[in-house]
Design goal:
6-stranded mixed beta sheet; alpha/beta; 5-stranded parallel beta sheet; elongated; single chain; 21 helices; Rossmann fold
Protein backbone atom coordinates (compact mmCIF):
# COMPACT_ATOMS: atom_id res chain seq x y z
CA UNK A 1 0.00 0.00 0.00
CA UNK A 2 1.07 3.56 -0.72
CA UNK A 3 0.65 5.73 2.36
CA UNK A 4 1.04 9.50 2.74
CA UNK A 5 1.85 10.70 6.26
CA UNK A 6 2.04 14.35 7.28
CA UNK A 7 1.83 16.67 10.25
CA UNK A 8 -1.09 19.11 10.14
CA UNK A 9 0.11 22.69 9.64
CA UNK A 10 -1.58 26.00 10.38
CA UNK A 11 -1.59 26.89 6.69
CA UNK A 12 -3.43 23.65 5.91
CA UNK A 13 -6.18 24.60 8.38
CA UNK A 14 -6.37 28.29 7.39
CA UNK A 15 -6.58 27.52 3.65
CA UNK A 16 -9.23 24.85 4.23
CA UNK A 17 -11.44 27.44 5.96
CA UNK A 18 -11.16 29.55 2.77
CA UNK A 19 -11.71 26.49 0.57
CA UNK A 20 -8.17 26.81 -0.76
CA UNK A 21 -5.50 24.19 -1.33
CA UNK A 22 -2.37 23.88 0.84
CA UNK A 23 0.38 21.30 1.06
CA UNK A 24 -1.52 18.23 2.30
CA UNK A 25 -4.49 18.79 0.00
CA UNK A 26 -2.18 19.37 -2.98
CA UNK A 27 -0.30 16.11 -2.42
CA UNK A 28 -3.52 14.16 -1.77
CA UNK A 29 -5.28 15.36 -4.92
CA UNK A 30 -2.53 16.10 -7.43
CA UNK A 31 0.31 13.63 -6.88
CA UNK A 32 0.66 11.04 -9.62
CA UNK A 33 0.31 8.35 -6.95
CA UNK A 34 -3.14 7.60 -5.62
CA UNK A 35 -2.62 7.00 -1.91
CA UNK A 36 -4.31 4.06 -0.20
CA UNK A 37 -4.14 5.86 3.16
CA UNK A 38 -3.52 9.48 4.13
CA UNK A 39 -2.47 9.78 7.76
CA UNK A 40 -2.39 13.25 9.29
CA UNK A 41 -0.74 13.72 12.69
CA UNK A 42 -2.00 16.66 14.74
CA UNK A 43 -1.63 18.17 18.19
CA UNK A 44 -3.38 21.54 17.66
CA UNK A 45 -6.56 23.05 16.16
CA UNK A 46 -8.65 20.05 17.30
CA UNK A 47 -11.88 21.99 16.74
CA UNK A 48 -11.19 21.91 12.97
CA UNK A 49 -10.15 18.25 12.59
CA UNK A 50 -13.56 16.82 11.64
CA UNK A 51 -14.15 19.67 9.21
CA UNK A 52 -10.73 19.17 7.60
CA UNK A 53 -11.22 15.41 7.17
CA UNK A 54 -14.64 15.90 5.61
CA UNK A 55 -13.47 18.73 3.32
CA UNK A 56 -10.45 16.84 1.94
CA UNK A 57 -12.29 13.50 1.60
CA UNK A 58 -14.99 15.22 -0.49
CA UNK A 59 -12.32 16.64 -2.82
CA UNK A 60 -10.82 13.17 -3.23
CA UNK A 61 -14.22 11.62 -3.93
CA UNK A 62 -14.91 14.18 -6.66
CA UNK A 63 -11.63 13.19 -8.32
CA UNK A 64 -12.45 9.48 -8.07
CA UNK A 65 -9.72 8.91 -5.48
CA UNK A 66 -10.40 6.94 -2.28
CA UNK A 67 -11.53 9.13 0.62
CA UNK A 68 -8.97 7.79 3.09
CA UNK A 69 -8.00 10.91 5.06
CA UNK A 70 -7.80 10.40 8.82
CA UNK A 71 -6.40 12.73 11.49
CA UNK A 72 -4.72 11.12 14.52
CA UNK A 73 -4.19 13.01 17.78
CA UNK A 74 -0.59 13.18 19.03
CA UNK A 75 0.27 14.19 22.60
CA UNK A 76 3.25 16.57 22.49
CA UNK A 77 4.71 18.65 25.29
CA UNK A 78 5.70 21.08 22.52
CA UNK A 79 5.75 20.94 18.68
CA UNK A 80 9.42 21.98 18.90
CA UNK A 81 10.44 19.29 21.41
CA UNK A 82 12.63 16.92 19.38
CA UNK A 83 12.26 13.97 21.74
CA UNK A 84 8.47 14.26 21.86
CA UNK A 85 8.15 14.64 18.08
CA UNK A 86 10.54 11.73 17.49
CA UNK A 87 8.57 9.46 19.83
CA UNK A 88 5.34 10.32 18.04
CA UNK A 89 6.80 9.79 14.56
CA UNK A 90 8.38 6.50 15.57
CA UNK A 91 5.11 5.19 17.02
CA UNK A 92 3.38 5.87 13.71
CA UNK A 93 6.13 4.92 11.25
CA UNK A 94 7.27 1.65 12.80
CA UNK A 95 4.06 -0.41 12.31
CA UNK A 96 3.59 1.00 8.81
CA UNK A 97 7.12 0.04 7.81
CA UNK A 98 6.87 -3.42 9.38
CA UNK A 99 3.73 -4.10 7.34
CA UNK A 100 5.72 -3.52 4.13
CA UNK A 101 3.97 -0.31 3.07
CA UNK A 102 5.51 2.25 0.73
CA UNK A 103 5.59 5.40 2.87
CA UNK A 104 5.64 8.99 1.60
CA UNK A 105 6.33 11.79 4.11
CA UNK A 106 5.24 15.39 3.54
CA UNK A 107 8.04 17.76 4.61
CA UNK A 108 6.16 21.02 4.02
CA UNK A 109 3.54 21.00 6.78
CA UNK A 110 4.33 21.27 10.48
CA UNK A 111 7.20 22.85 12.42
CA UNK A 112 10.89 22.76 11.39
CA UNK A 113 11.38 20.26 14.23
CA UNK A 114 8.81 17.95 12.68
CA UNK A 115 10.50 18.23 9.29
CA UNK A 116 13.97 17.49 10.69
CA UNK A 117 12.77 14.48 12.67
CA UNK A 118 10.84 13.17 9.65
CA UNK A 119 13.99 13.29 7.52
CA UNK A 120 16.18 11.62 10.16
CA UNK A 121 13.76 8.78 10.92
CA UNK A 122 12.38 8.35 7.43
CA UNK A 123 15.79 8.25 5.77
CA UNK A 124 17.87 6.70 8.53
CA UNK A 125 15.53 3.94 9.68
CA UNK A 126 12.34 3.39 7.70
CA UNK A 127 13.34 3.94 4.05
CA UNK A 128 10.58 6.45 3.27
CA UNK A 129 10.03 8.71 0.25
CA UNK A 130 9.85 12.48 0.76
CA UNK A 131 7.54 15.07 -0.81
CA UNK A 132 7.18 18.81 -0.51
CA UNK A 133 5.13 21.56 -2.16
CA UNK A 134 5.93 25.11 -3.22
CA UNK A 135 3.76 28.21 -2.58
CA UNK A 136 2.30 27.80 -6.07
CA UNK A 137 1.17 24.27 -5.06
CA UNK A 138 3.64 22.53 -7.34
CA UNK A 139 4.91 19.16 -6.10
CA UNK A 140 8.51 18.07 -5.69
CA UNK A 141 9.85 14.58 -4.97
CA UNK A 142 12.73 15.18 -2.57
CA UNK A 143 15.98 13.22 -2.66
CA UNK A 144 17.99 13.21 0.57
CA UNK A 145 21.65 12.85 -0.57
CA UNK A 146 22.96 11.32 2.64
CA UNK A 147 23.19 7.80 4.04
CA UNK A 148 22.34 8.63 7.64
CA UNK A 149 22.53 5.04 8.85
CA UNK A 150 26.06 4.47 7.54
CA UNK A 151 27.26 7.90 8.70
CA UNK A 152 25.81 7.45 12.16
CA UNK A 153 27.26 3.95 12.53
CA UNK A 154 30.71 5.16 11.46
CA UNK A 155 30.72 8.12 13.85
CA UNK A 156 29.26 6.06 16.69
CA UNK A 157 31.95 3.39 16.29
CA UNK A 158 34.63 6.07 16.39
CA UNK A 159 33.20 7.80 19.45
CA UNK A 160 32.66 4.57 21.36
CA UNK A 161 36.19 3.41 20.58
CA UNK A 162 37.65 6.71 21.72
CA UNK A 163 35.67 6.72 24.95
CA UNK A 164 36.51 3.11 25.77
CA UNK A 165 40.22 3.54 25.09
CA UNK A 166 40.93 6.82 26.82
CA UNK A 167 37.84 8.65 28.04
CA UNK A 168 38.38 10.44 31.36
CA UNK A 169 34.92 9.39 32.56
CA UNK A 170 35.97 5.75 32.40
CA UNK A 171 39.01 6.31 34.56
CA UNK A 172 37.03 8.20 37.16
CA UNK A 173 34.19 5.71 37.26
CA UNK A 174 35.91 2.33 37.31
CA UNK A 175 39.36 2.83 38.83
CA UNK A 176 38.01 2.51 42.37
CA UNK A 177 36.63 -0.98 41.71
CA UNK A 178 38.84 -3.84 42.86
CA UNK A 179 39.60 -5.99 39.83
CA UNK A 180 42.79 -8.02 40.09
CA UNK A 181 40.97 -11.26 39.35
CA UNK A 182 40.22 -12.34 35.78
CA UNK A 183 36.41 -12.49 36.30
CA UNK A 184 36.30 -8.91 37.59
CA UNK A 185 38.62 -7.65 34.86
CA UNK A 186 36.18 -9.11 32.33
CA UNK A 187 33.27 -7.36 34.08
CA UNK A 188 35.05 -3.99 34.02
CA UNK A 189 35.85 -4.41 30.33
CA UNK A 190 32.21 -5.19 29.51
CA UNK A 191 30.90 -2.38 31.70
CA UNK A 192 33.22 0.22 30.18
CA UNK A 193 32.01 -0.65 26.69
CA UNK A 194 28.37 -0.62 27.77
CA UNK A 195 28.66 2.65 29.68
CA UNK A 196 29.29 4.82 26.60
CA UNK A 197 26.20 3.53 24.81
CA UNK A 198 22.58 4.41 25.54
CA UNK A 199 21.60 0.74 25.82
CA UNK A 200 19.62 -0.63 28.75
CA UNK A 201 21.71 -2.82 31.05
CA UNK A 202 20.87 -5.86 33.15
CA UNK A 203 23.27 -6.83 35.95
CA UNK A 204 22.93 -10.37 37.26
CA UNK A 205 24.59 -11.93 40.28
CA UNK A 206 24.16 -13.30 43.76
CA UNK A 207 23.10 -11.13 46.66
CA UNK A 208 25.93 -8.97 47.96
CA UNK A 209 28.18 -9.09 44.89
CA UNK A 210 28.15 -5.32 44.31
CA UNK A 211 25.57 -4.91 41.55
CA UNK A 212 24.58 -1.41 42.68
CA UNK A 213 28.23 -0.33 42.85
CA UNK A 214 28.69 -1.43 39.24
CA UNK A 215 25.49 0.33 38.14
CA UNK A 216 26.74 3.55 39.74
CA UNK A 217 30.06 3.23 37.90
CA UNK A 218 28.30 2.63 34.57
CA UNK A 219 26.25 5.80 35.04
CA UNK A 220 29.32 7.79 36.07
CA UNK A 221 31.16 6.67 32.91
CA UNK A 222 28.24 7.48 30.61
CA UNK A 223 27.26 10.60 28.70
CA UNK A 224 24.52 11.01 31.30
CA UNK A 225 26.92 11.39 34.23
CA UNK A 226 25.96 15.05 34.74
CA UNK A 227 22.30 14.07 35.06
CA UNK A 228 20.57 12.30 37.98
CA UNK A 229 21.00 8.65 38.92
CA UNK A 230 17.89 7.48 40.76
CA UNK A 231 17.68 4.12 42.53
CA UNK A 232 14.69 2.06 43.63
CA UNK A 233 14.58 -1.36 45.27
CA UNK A 234 11.76 -3.06 43.41
CA UNK A 235 11.31 -5.59 46.19
CA UNK A 236 10.38 -2.75 48.56
CA UNK A 237 7.75 -1.16 46.28
CA UNK A 238 4.30 -1.27 47.95
CA UNK A 239 1.80 -2.54 45.37
CA UNK A 240 -0.60 0.34 45.98
CA UNK A 241 2.14 2.97 45.52
CA UNK A 242 3.98 1.61 42.46
CA UNK A 243 2.38 4.11 40.08
CA UNK A 244 2.97 7.08 42.36
CA UNK A 245 6.61 6.20 43.11
CA UNK A 246 7.56 5.50 39.50
CA UNK A 247 5.34 7.94 37.60
CA UNK A 248 4.32 10.56 40.18
CA UNK A 249 0.89 11.95 41.03
CA UNK A 250 -1.06 15.19 40.89
CA UNK A 251 -2.54 16.99 43.84
CA UNK A 252 -5.76 15.33 44.96
CA UNK A 253 -5.09 12.03 43.15
CA UNK A 254 -5.65 10.22 46.46
CA UNK A 255 -6.23 11.11 50.10
CA UNK A 256 -2.66 11.97 51.09
CA UNK A 257 -1.72 13.62 47.76
CA UNK A 258 -1.61 17.19 49.06
CA UNK A 259 0.65 18.44 46.25
CA UNK A 260 1.97 17.45 42.83
CA UNK A 261 4.78 14.90 42.96
CA UNK A 262 7.26 13.94 40.26
CA UNK A 263 7.94 10.19 40.13
CA UNK A 264 11.32 8.55 39.66
CA UNK A 265 11.03 8.55 35.86
CA UNK A 266 10.67 12.34 35.85
CA UNK A 267 13.34 12.79 38.51
CA UNK A 268 15.77 10.74 36.40
CA UNK A 269 14.91 12.52 33.11
CA UNK A 270 18.07 12.82 31.04
CA UNK A 271 19.87 10.47 33.41
CA UNK A 272 19.65 6.89 34.66
CA UNK A 273 17.08 4.91 36.66
CA UNK A 274 18.52 1.92 38.52
CA UNK A 275 15.92 -0.77 39.21
CA UNK A 276 17.49 -2.95 41.89
CA UNK A 277 16.02 -6.43 42.37
CA UNK A 278 13.80 -6.03 39.31
CA UNK A 279 12.92 -9.71 39.58
CA UNK A 280 10.77 -8.87 42.63
CA UNK A 281 8.28 -6.77 40.63
CA UNK A 282 4.71 -8.03 40.57
CA UNK A 283 3.04 -8.87 37.26
CA UNK A 284 0.97 -5.68 37.43
CA UNK A 285 4.04 -3.53 38.07
CA UNK A 286 5.88 -5.23 35.19
CA UNK A 287 3.09 -4.21 32.78
CA UNK A 288 3.25 -0.57 33.89
CA UNK A 289 7.04 -0.46 33.65
CA UNK A 290 7.01 -2.02 30.18
CA UNK A 291 4.52 0.57 28.92
CA UNK A 292 6.75 3.42 30.12
CA UNK A 293 9.83 1.88 28.50
CA UNK A 294 8.09 1.23 25.18
CA UNK A 295 6.48 4.64 24.82
CA UNK A 296 9.12 6.84 26.44
CA UNK A 297 6.35 8.69 28.23
CA UNK A 298 4.44 8.55 31.49
CA UNK A 299 1.26 9.98 33.01
CA UNK A 300 1.08 10.98 36.65
CA UNK A 301 -1.55 9.29 38.81
CA UNK A 302 -4.71 11.36 38.65
CA UNK A 303 -3.45 13.42 35.72
CA UNK A 304 -4.26 13.39 32.03
CA UNK A 305 -1.11 15.06 30.67
CA UNK A 306 1.39 12.80 28.92
CA UNK A 307 4.97 13.59 29.94
CA UNK A 308 7.91 12.67 27.71
CA UNK A 309 10.87 11.18 29.59
CA UNK A 310 14.38 10.31 28.44
CA UNK A 311 15.70 7.74 30.91
CA UNK A 312 18.32 5.03 30.62
CA UNK A 313 17.41 1.90 32.56
CA UNK A 314 19.91 -0.22 34.47
CA UNK A 315 18.29 -3.18 36.20
CA UNK A 316 19.73 -5.77 38.55
CA UNK A 317 18.58 -9.00 40.15
CA UNK A 318 19.79 -12.13 41.88
CA UNK A 319 16.71 -14.01 40.65
CA UNK A 320 16.87 -16.47 37.69
CA UNK A 321 14.86 -14.38 35.22
CA UNK A 322 15.01 -16.90 32.37
CA UNK A 323 13.49 -19.59 34.59
CA UNK A 324 10.92 -17.06 35.83
CA UNK A 325 9.98 -16.32 32.21
CA UNK A 326 9.52 -20.01 31.53
CA UNK A 327 7.23 -20.23 34.57
CA UNK A 328 5.27 -17.15 33.52
CA UNK A 329 6.37 -15.16 36.56
CA UNK A 330 8.42 -12.56 34.66
CA UNK A 331 7.23 -11.04 31.38
CA UNK A 332 9.27 -12.07 28.36
CA UNK A 333 8.74 -8.73 26.59
CA UNK A 334 10.02 -6.82 29.64
CA UNK A 335 13.03 -9.13 29.94
CA UNK A 336 14.11 -8.44 26.37
CA UNK A 337 13.61 -4.70 26.90
CA UNK A 338 16.03 -4.84 29.84
CA UNK A 339 18.46 -7.56 28.75
CA UNK A 340 20.25 -5.68 25.98
CA UNK A 341 23.62 -5.26 27.68
CA UNK A 342 23.91 -8.11 30.20
CA UNK A 343 26.71 -8.30 32.78
CA UNK A 344 27.06 -11.07 35.35
CA UNK A 345 28.82 -10.15 38.59
CA UNK A 346 31.02 -13.00 39.86
CA UNK A 347 30.59 -14.20 43.45
CA UNK A 348 33.36 -13.46 45.90
CA UNK A 349 34.54 -17.09 45.90
CA UNK A 350 35.29 -16.74 42.15
CA UNK A 351 37.51 -13.67 42.64
CA UNK A 352 39.80 -14.65 45.52
CA UNK A 353 42.67 -12.56 44.14
CA UNK A 354 40.61 -9.49 44.99
CA UNK A 355 40.03 -10.42 48.62
CA UNK A 356 43.20 -8.93 50.22
CA UNK A 357 42.54 -5.53 48.62
CA UNK A 358 38.84 -5.68 49.44
CA UNK A 359 39.63 -6.48 53.08
CA UNK A 360 42.07 -3.54 53.18
CA UNK A 361 39.48 -1.16 51.74
CA UNK A 362 36.67 -2.36 54.00
CA UNK A 363 38.84 -2.28 57.11
CA UNK A 364 39.99 1.26 56.32
CA UNK A 365 36.37 2.38 55.98
CA UNK A 366 35.38 0.65 59.22
CA UNK A 367 38.30 2.20 61.09
CA UNK A 368 37.28 5.61 59.78
CA UNK A 369 33.74 5.10 61.01
CA UNK A 370 34.70 3.65 64.40
CA UNK A 371 37.27 6.41 64.97
CA UNK A 372 34.39 8.59 66.18
CA UNK A 373 34.03 6.34 69.24
CA UNK A 374 35.96 7.41 72.35
CA UNK A 375 39.24 5.56 73.00
CA UNK A 376 38.94 3.61 69.75
CA UNK A 377 42.23 2.21 68.42
CA UNK A 378 42.52 1.47 64.72
CA UNK A 379 42.51 -2.23 63.85
CA UNK A 380 44.63 -4.18 61.42
CA UNK A 381 44.29 -7.79 60.29
CA UNK A 382 46.75 -10.67 60.39
CA UNK A 383 47.94 -12.50 57.30
CA UNK A 384 46.49 -15.74 58.60
CA UNK A 385 43.09 -14.03 59.02
CA UNK A 386 43.22 -12.82 55.41
CA UNK A 387 44.08 -16.38 54.35
CA UNK A 388 41.11 -17.61 56.36
CA UNK A 389 38.86 -15.13 54.54
CA UNK A 390 40.21 -16.27 51.17
CA UNK A 391 39.36 -19.87 52.01
CA UNK A 392 35.79 -19.13 53.06
CA UNK A 393 33.00 -19.60 50.50
CA UNK A 394 31.12 -16.40 51.48
CA UNK A 395 27.52 -17.26 50.56
CA UNK A 396 26.64 -13.60 51.25
CA UNK A 397 29.58 -12.29 49.20
CA UNK A 398 31.01 -8.80 49.81
CA UNK A 399 28.08 -7.73 51.98
CA UNK A 400 28.66 -10.70 54.28
CA UNK A 401 32.40 -9.96 54.36
CA UNK A 402 31.66 -6.35 55.30
CA UNK A 403 29.34 -7.36 58.12
CA UNK A 404 31.75 -9.99 59.46
CA UNK A 405 34.65 -7.51 59.53
CA UNK A 406 32.46 -4.97 61.31
CA UNK A 407 31.66 -7.51 64.01
CA UNK A 408 35.31 -8.58 64.25
CA UNK A 409 36.45 -4.98 64.73
CA UNK A 410 33.80 -4.49 67.38
CA UNK A 411 34.62 -7.62 69.41
CA UNK A 412 38.40 -8.04 68.87
CA UNK A 413 40.34 -7.68 72.12
CA UNK A 414 43.63 -6.65 70.51
CA UNK A 415 44.57 -4.21 67.77
CA UNK A 416 44.99 -7.06 65.29
CA UNK A 417 42.10 -9.17 64.00
CA UNK A 418 42.97 -12.86 64.13
CA UNK A 419 41.52 -16.07 62.71
CA UNK A 420 39.92 -16.72 66.09
CA UNK A 421 38.20 -13.32 66.00
CA UNK A 422 36.73 -14.14 62.59
CA UNK A 423 35.67 -17.64 63.61
CA UNK A 424 33.85 -16.16 66.60
CA UNK A 425 31.82 -13.66 64.57
CA UNK A 426 31.07 -16.13 61.75
CA UNK A 427 29.98 -19.00 64.00
CA UNK A 428 26.34 -17.96 64.22
CA UNK A 429 26.15 -17.51 60.45
CA UNK A 430 27.56 -20.98 59.80
CA UNK A 431 25.14 -22.52 62.27
CA UNK A 432 22.14 -20.81 60.70
CA UNK A 433 22.00 -23.21 57.77
CA UNK A 434 23.59 -20.97 55.15
CA UNK A 435 26.75 -23.05 54.86
CA UNK A 436 28.40 -24.45 51.78
CA UNK A 437 26.11 -27.48 51.88
CA UNK A 438 23.54 -25.38 50.05
CA UNK A 439 23.76 -25.35 46.28
CA UNK A 440 25.19 -21.96 45.19
CA UNK A 441 23.60 -19.77 42.52
CA UNK A 442 25.17 -20.58 39.18
CA UNK A 443 26.26 -17.41 37.40
CA UNK A 444 28.95 -16.52 34.89
CA UNK A 445 32.40 -16.82 36.47
CA UNK A 446 31.37 -19.67 38.78
CA UNK A 447 34.00 -22.43 38.86
CA UNK A 448 32.67 -25.63 40.41
CA UNK A 449 36.16 -27.12 40.86
CA UNK A 450 37.34 -23.98 42.63
CA UNK A 451 34.25 -24.15 44.85
CA UNK A 452 34.96 -27.81 45.73
CA UNK A 453 38.63 -27.04 46.38
CA UNK A 454 37.64 -24.23 48.76
CA UNK A 455 35.52 -26.65 50.79
CA UNK A 456 38.28 -29.27 50.82
CA UNK A 457 40.85 -26.68 51.90
CA UNK A 458 38.66 -25.52 54.77
CA UNK A 459 38.27 -29.04 56.18
CA UNK A 460 41.92 -29.94 55.63
CA UNK A 461 43.00 -26.87 57.62
CA UNK A 462 40.50 -27.73 60.37
CA UNK A 463 41.75 -31.34 60.51
CA UNK A 464 45.40 -30.24 60.62
CA UNK A 465 44.65 -27.80 63.41
CA UNK A 466 42.75 -30.41 65.45
CA UNK A 467 45.45 -33.06 64.93
CA UNK A 468 48.30 -30.69 65.76
CA UNK A 469 49.69 -31.08 62.25
CA UNK A 470 49.85 -34.89 62.38
CA UNK A 471 49.05 -36.03 58.81
CA UNK A 472 47.99 -39.55 59.77
CA UNK A 473 45.54 -38.31 62.41
CA UNK A 474 44.27 -35.57 60.10
CA UNK A 475 43.70 -38.12 57.30
CA UNK A 476 41.62 -40.28 59.64
CA UNK A 477 39.56 -37.28 60.72
CA UNK A 478 38.80 -36.61 57.07
CA UNK A 479 37.97 -40.24 56.34
CA UNK A 480 40.91 -40.66 53.94
CA UNK A 481 42.57 -44.03 53.38
CA UNK A 482 46.09 -42.86 54.23
CA UNK A 483 48.22 -39.81 54.92
CA UNK A 484 49.65 -39.89 51.38
CA UNK A 485 46.25 -39.01 49.96
CA UNK A 486 46.11 -36.08 52.37
CA UNK A 487 49.64 -35.04 51.36
CA UNK A 488 48.55 -35.00 47.70
CA UNK A 489 45.55 -32.84 48.62
CA UNK A 490 47.76 -30.42 50.55
CA UNK A 491 50.14 -30.11 47.62
CA UNK A 492 47.35 -29.62 45.06
CA UNK A 493 45.54 -27.06 47.22
CA UNK A 494 48.76 -25.13 47.94
CA UNK A 495 48.40 -25.43 51.70
CA UNK A 496 51.50 -24.63 53.73
CA UNK A 497 51.42 -27.28 56.45
CA UNK A 498 53.26 -26.29 59.60
Amino acid sequence: MKILISWLGKTDVDNMRQNKMASIATLATKHNHTFDDIIILANSWQEHWNQYESWLNKRLAVLGRPDVVKIFSQSLSSPTNYQAVANAMQRNLEPLAKAGNEIFINLTSGTPTMTAVSVLLGKGIYGCHFLQTAPDNSIEDVTIPFDFAATYARVARHNISARVMSGPAFAGAFNTLTAKSAPMQAVIKQASKLAVTELPALILGETGTGKEVLATAIHAASNRSNKPLKTINCGALPENLVDSILFGHVKGAFTSADKDHAGLFEQADGGTLFLDEVGELTQAAQVKLLRALQQGEITRVGGNKTIQVDVRIIAATHRPLTAMMANGVFREDLFYRLAVGVIEMPPLRARREDIPQLVEQILAEINKTFAKLPDYKSKKISNSAIKFIENHAWPGNIRALWNSLNRAVLWAESDEITVQDLQQVMLSVEQSGTSEQNVPNLVAGFDVQQYIDAIKEKYVLAALEKSGGNLSKAAKLLGLANHQTLSNWIKKLGIEAE
